[in-house]
Amino acid sequence: MVDAIVLAGSPNTGPLKECSPARYEALISIGGKTMVEYVVEALNSSKKINNIVVVGPRDELAEIMPGYVTVVPAGNSLLENLMEGLRHLSGTEKVLMATCDIPMITPQAIENFLDLCSGKQADIYYPVISKKDVERIYPCTSRTYVSLKEGRFTGGNLFLFKPEVVEGCMKKGQQLVAARKSPVKMCKLLGTVFLIKFLLRQVSLREAESRVSTVLGVSGAVVISSYPEVGVDVDKPSDLQLATEKLSMAV
């Protein structure tokens, strides 16, 4: 089993602010529950998750989080939030980090990702999902895809990592995460030669894994998940409408 940190401190200042008056994206309501509640419930229902820490607006979260969740106030950066969360999970070997904007995530998707990671030795694990698998379940969703030798993939919103590597790789890691919606920007961070090969569609999944590991200074592993819920986040009105429709059908 692993512990989990849910990042829930992003203010609702982007495209979703026209859909909800909530001050934070985590607190946007879907079918009577907030987005972060769906994520926490999926984590708690997984047989592979132990402790759960949610980092975000403490007062608002304290009113809705169940007793088994530790609520930690958010800082000013991703690194601050992760480090603060980790301080409440001392001694854990690996930690699963989830964003708060994947309300359609399921315990099965979480467990599958952890199972895929268990077959590899690495410091950081990151899931990708093929366009075919995303569109098999969510044919109308709009995602950002990267074209590799093996096909087209979108990134996931789960990370498994060893706590001791966070500080050393977080600066560059934040840059990569910020560029995730623009494959070209991301490739620029990985070097000119890599960018050229990427534009020529000559990069394989393993080459990408190796280059990111080198840039971050850690051992990284990319795993291919067949669960689109791992990568279908809610960051624009059309995503919110999709989540509302899908989650109302599940009730």
From TrEMBL:
Highest rank taxon of the organism: Bacteria
Record GO terms (molecular function): nucleotidyltransferase activity
Annotated MobA-like NTP transferase domain residues: 26-133
Alphabetized SUPFAM superfamilies for the sequence: Nucleotide-diphospho-sugar transferases
Keywords: Transferase
A Pfam family per the record: NTP_transf_3
Record-annotated membrane-spanning stretches: none
InterPro entries: MobA-like_NTP_Trfase (IPR025877), Nucleotide-diphossugar_trans (IPR029044)
Xref: PANTHER family: MOLYBDENUM COFACTOR GUANYLYLTRANSFERASE
Name of the protein: MobA-like NTP transferase domain-containing protein
